[in-house]
Amino acid sequence: PSRTFHGNNRLLTSPIISYYESINQHKRELPEYFNFAGDVLDEWARLEKDGRKAANPAFWWVNDEGEEVKWSFEELGCLSRKAANVLSEGFGLQRGDRVVAVLPRVPEWWLLNVACMRAGIVFIPGTSQLTAKDILYRLQASKAKCFITSDTLAPAVESVLPDSQFLKSKLIVGRGSRAGWLSLKELL
């Protein structure tokens, strides 16, 4: 059987459905540990590199001004490993630690999301419309150790820093900089 997905004309083909049906019927072994970054993205990069899969962008982003970022699976894998190292080695975050990311939908949002998957760090996204009160609530409820945002959104975080006892690291994404914050661009 095949059907359209959310009104899209692309079909969910029967091999995909049959694969999931075989898992549900316990005909396939589920891995004890699964990591999307390593088990899927890195595998696709390897298949492309070996010539067994056609090269397609893993990520393609275009903003309103026409600026474009396009990463292959290999590039996304490499960049996400670097970002995971920044979070784990640079900031001392460990598997299960939490980071709050309040960013507009820029390429780094997806990069950091994959990096957190890779490192086992819990990525907590937040809309750029959050108020200082909203940010404080998320920091306290999640016990996040790291906050990631842009230089324009950082003042809202700074206003609640005295009340966020678990926060240890602050990371700026984008072209700007801010005193007391580390820059993802520089660390990568």
Automatic annotation (TrEMBL):
EC main group: ligase
Known catalytic reactions: a medium-chain fatty acid + ATP + CoA = a medium-chain fatty acyl-CoA + AMP + diphosphate
GO molecular function, one term: medium-chain fatty acid-CoA ligase activity
TM segment ranges: none
Any one annotated GO CC term: mitochondrial matrix
Keywords recorded for this protein, A-Z: ATP-binding, Fatty acid metabolism, Ligase, Lipid metabolism, Nucleotide-binding
BP-aspect Gene Ontology terms: acyl-CoA metabolic process; fatty acid biosynthetic process
EC number(s) reported in the record: 6.2.1.2
PANTHER family documented for this protein: ACYL-COENZYME A SYNTHETASE, ACYL-COENZYME A SYNTHETASE ACSM5, MITOCHONDRIAL
Protein name: medium-chain acyl-CoA ligase
Species this protein is from: Aegithalos caudatus (Long-tailed tit)
The organism's taxonomic lineage, starting at the top: Eukaryota, Metazoa, Chordata, Craniata, Vertebrata
